[in-house]
Structure formats: structure tokens, C-alpha cells
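[recover] target loaded
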């Protein structure tokens, strides 16, 4: 009897996936306009668009730019034309532009100077100094055989046709549903040069920095359409989000936010936060932002098939557009929620409270334009997400009944319509500090 109970317990334990953890919606409130917009995301349209991308033969960064039918030049002119049409459909609500520059392709022995052309659709916000970035890379390659082969077919249907068509679809749907913009601007961007070392995203991240933009978060959709691994395993019900858990920059805060948004708007589609910058030995277009102190996050399919990446076999038939649509809906809910919210507090400070014998702390934060209240979120340092939410009201200092030595506390701003900002971690090593409040 005892033995069989032990066996049963072992079996149950073995069936629980590693690290399984119930998500928390973190007290975020559902917005009916966002929920309605999710229904507009079209898997069929994304399939059609990806088939057009594949039909350009190759989208290698150094491929033909003059042909009307083949190469990266034709591909970007087509993307620009599609986005321009989406803008016409929302009474010119989007601003479509080429973001241009040159970069040395360092992985080529000749180190040629190559023209870098990203395509951007801007949805201007009420505060155009603040930007939420969501991108995918439209360049492709057959890097697994020859990274500098810019003439052979490189279909790139999944890597990263899938992310490209998702970002284009987001521009269309968000433009149509929110034609007057949100609180922050949104940049829907299709990068070039990813396969040569994140060149297009580095160019855009540098530009935003040069222009003094405050980037709330930068997302990349990269490889978001495969659901069958090489060993036959299938998964079309979960997605990985990669963000490095840097307390000062806020990558982990961003991952917890996406996790919560997924649980709120699309609970049957599991978000699997992975608190590292990217898959081992791999890179993506969120990285140049993270390197500049901006929270960045990568969306990637749960199961990758390495026999179809960076090869002529990365074909349209193997992209599951129903799955791409689920990722795109998660993207949409995340991007709109963040862009509709105020900025997060820039600086925080704390002081131990004497009257409580140090069992409470005074928390202070810098005020945020447009905030109508602030909330403090609390978690033990060993748990992955926040478990307690305290409404502090419309103040910038609050006596919190927590021993701050033992927990992480995040402060966030609440906007007039209930959207919540990202959290700023109190006492994060390297984080921006206010002068400490006086000890009581
Ligand atoms: Zn990629």
C-alpha cells in the first residue's frame, strides 16, 4: 500500500513539466477594444503575405535591389506598398518610411559597405517622445550552407517571413482599430541585415537614441511559425518569450508583463517566459536595444526545426499560420496595452521605517505624466512573478508593510483608463535612484 502510494506520487510528479507555474494576470484589466481587435488578426492574410515574400526568391541583405520581382529591393518596396495601403485604409493613420543607413558586413571577408533599409510604419501617439517598438526581420539567408550566397533561393518562410507578416498584420489591425493612436507611439518595423549581425535593428536603436526617444520596450518576432520539431514532437499551444532578467533595465519585468497579458487575453495559449537574452548561441533584433539599456524581448515558437532554418527548406508549407496568428494576437494585446499606459516611474528610493522596527519601508518614486494612481507589486526573490498588489493611490511616497530586504518590489503607474505601466524595481542594483526619503 505504502509502496503503491509512493509510486503514484512519483508518477504524478513526473507528469508535471519542468518549472510549470501558474501565470498571474498581475491585476491588469482587460480592455474591450483590445479584445475586439484580436478578432481582426487574419491567418489567411498572413499566409498570402508570406507566400509573396517567399516568391521574391531571396531576401539576402546583399541581394539584387533593382529587380521588380527578385531580391531584397523588390521585397522592401512591396512591404512599403502594403503598409501604405493599410495606412490609406485608416485615413492615413500610419506614417510609412524607409529607415536607411550603411553598415559594414563584418562576416564577409571583403567587408563591403552595404546599404541598410528598414521599413517602418509609425502609429504616432499623443506623446511622440515615447515609443513601443515591435519588429521582425524581412531579410533571409541560407547561412547554414553559405552565409554570403546572395543569389540562390533563400525562402525564409519561417525565419523570418513569419515574424515579418505578423508585424505587418499588427500595423494593419492596430491602425484600423486605433487610428488616432495611443498614449505612446508605436513603431512597427521590418528590419534588414539581421542575418549579418543585427545590423538593421542596431541602426534603428541608435537612431532612436540619437533622437532622444524614450523606448518603453522593444519586441522582436523571429521564427514564430513552426509547430513540429524534427523528432515529430508538436506544440501549437505555447510560445517562448526570451528576456534577460536584468532588474535595472527591466527585461524580466517585461517578460512578466507579457506573461500576464497572455493569461488575460488568450489563456489557452501558454506563454513560457525564459529569463535569458536568447536561445544559447543565438541572437535577435531585441539585443541592440538591451545593450542600450532598453527592455527587450523575443517571441519565438516553442519548437524549432533546425533542418529548416537558414536553408532552402525553410518553406511556406511548414509554417502554421493559425499558430502565427496566436503569437500575433499576444503581440497585439501586449503592444497596445503598453502603448496605452503611462511611462513607468524613472527613479525609486527607499528607507527603513524605524517605528515598525524595520518591518516596513517607505518607498518613494518619481512622478509620471498622466498617472492617476500608482501600485506596488511584491514578490519573494525566489518566485517568478508578483503575488501581492498594493494600491498606493495618487501619491509618490508610501509606507509599505514589507521587510524590503526579503522581497522585490516593483512600482508602476496607472493611467486614467486603467492601463498599467511596466514596473520599476525598487533598489535594483544599478537602477536610477531618487534621494532616499527621510527615516521615520
Ligand atoms: Zn531570424
Amino acid at each position: 500500500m505504502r509502496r503503491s502510494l509512493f509510486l503514484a506520487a512519483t508518477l504524478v510528479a513526473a507528469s508535471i513539466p519542468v518549472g510549470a507555474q501558474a501565470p498571474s494576470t498581475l491585476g491588469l484589466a482587460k480592455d474591450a477594444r483590445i479584445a475586439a481587435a484580436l478578432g481582426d488578426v487574419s491567418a489567411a492574410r498572413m499566409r498570402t503575405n508570406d507566400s509573396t515574400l517567399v516568391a521574391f526568391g531571396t531576401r539576402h541583405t546583399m541581394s539584387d535591389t533593382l529587380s521588380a520581382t527578385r531580391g531584397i529591393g523588390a521585397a522592401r518596396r512591396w512591404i512599403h506598398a502594403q503598409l501604405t495601403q493599410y495606412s490609406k485604409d485608416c485615413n492615413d493613420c500610419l506614417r510609412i518610411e524607409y529607415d536607411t543607413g550603411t553598415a559594414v558586413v563584418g562576416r564577409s571577408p571583403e567587408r563591403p559597405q552595404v546599404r541598410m533599409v528598414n521599413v517602418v510604419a509609425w502609429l504616432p501617439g499623443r506623446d511622440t517622445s515615447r515609443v513601443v517598438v515591435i519588429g521582425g526581420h524581412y531579410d533571409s539567408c541560407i547561412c547554414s550552407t553559405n552565409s554570403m550566397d546572395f543569389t540562390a533561393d533563400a525562402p525564409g518562410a519561417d525565419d523570418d517571413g513569419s515574424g515579418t507578416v505578423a508585424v505587418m498584420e499588427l500595423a494593419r489591425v492596430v491602425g484600423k482599430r486605433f487610428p488616432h493612436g495611443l498614449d505612446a507611439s508605436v513603431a512597427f518595423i521590418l528590419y534588414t541585415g539581421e542575418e549579418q549581425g543585427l545590423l538593421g535593428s542596431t541602426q534603428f536603436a541608435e537612431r532612436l537614441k540619437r533622437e532622444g526617444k524614450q523606448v518603453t520596450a522593444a519586441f522582436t518576432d523571429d521564427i514564430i511559425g513552426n509547430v513540429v520539431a524534427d523528432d515529430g514532437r508538436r506544440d501549437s499551444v505555447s510560445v517562448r518569450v526570451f528576456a534577460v532578467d536584468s532588474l535595472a533595465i527591466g527585461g524580466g519585468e517585461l517578460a512578466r508583463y507579457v506573461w500576464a497579458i497572455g493569461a488575460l487575453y488568450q489563456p489557452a495559449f501558454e506563454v513560457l517566459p525564459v529569463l535569458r537574452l536568447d536561445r544559447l548561441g543565438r541572437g535577435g533584433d531585441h539585443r541592440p536595444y538591451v545593450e542600450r539599456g532598453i527592455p527587450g524581448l523575443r517571441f519565438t515558437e516553442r519548437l524549432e526545426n533546425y533542418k529548416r532554418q537558414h536553408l532552402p527548406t525553410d518553406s511556406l508549407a511548414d509554417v502554421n499560420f493559425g499558430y502565427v496568428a496566436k503569437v500575433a494576437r499576444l503581440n497585439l494585446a501586449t503592444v497596445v496595452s503598453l502603448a496605452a499606459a503611462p511611462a513607468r516611474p524613472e527613479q525609486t528610493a527607499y528607507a527603513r521605517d524605524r517605528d515598525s522596527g524595520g518591518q516596513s519601508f517607505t518607498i518613494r518614486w518619481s512622478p509620471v505624466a498622466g498617472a492617476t494612481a500608482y501600485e506596488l507589486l511584491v514578490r519573494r526573490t525566489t518566485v517568478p512573478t508578483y503575488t501581492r498588489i498594493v494600491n498606493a493611490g495618487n501619491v509618490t511616497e508610501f509606507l509599505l508593510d514589507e521587510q524590503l530586504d526579503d522581497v522585490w518590489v516593483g512600482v508602476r503607474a496607472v493611467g486614467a483608463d486603467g492601463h498599467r505601466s511596466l514596473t520599476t524595481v525598487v533598489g535594483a542594483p544599478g537602477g536610477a535612484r531618487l534621494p532616499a526619503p527621510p527615516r521615520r
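[recover] notes: Residues 137, 159-160, 194, 222-223 surround zinc ion (CB under 6 Å).
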